[in-house]
């Protein structure tokens, strides 16, 4: 299958056909790991593991904690 490279802002993109995305179980907003083999001129990608809703909640709580107590955490790090 052949896909066209398109311009999005200052970046280039290649679309993934709907059937291929379904087979890979990926959708809009999902993250993928990209590997470039410049010697063989091959670009490949694979879906990254999706984190659970509990892990997402913990990550948000941690980010909020760090944002809220940033000044105090920095002060503790200096001691």
Automatic annotation (TrEMBL):
Molecular-function annotations in GO: DNA binding
Domain of life where this protein originates: Bacteria
Organism (species): Candidatus Magasanikbacteria bacterium GW2011_GWA2_50_22
SUPFAM superfamilies assigned to the protein according to its UniProt record, in alphabetical order: AbrB/MazE/MraZ-like
Name of the featured protein: SpoVT-AbrB domain-containing protein
Residue ranges annotated for the SpoVT-AbrB domain, each copy included: 6-52
């Amino acid at each position: 299958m052949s896909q066209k490279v398109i311009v999005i802002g200052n970046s280039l993109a290649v679309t993934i056909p709907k059937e291929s995305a379904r087979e890979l179980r990926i959708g809009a907003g999902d993250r993928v790991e990209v590997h470039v083999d410049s010697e063989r001129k091959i670009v490949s990608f694979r879906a990254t593991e999706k984190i659970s809703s509990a892990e997402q909640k913990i990550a948000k709580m941690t980010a909020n904690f760090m944002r809220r107590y940033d000044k105090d955490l920095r002060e503790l790090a200096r001691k």
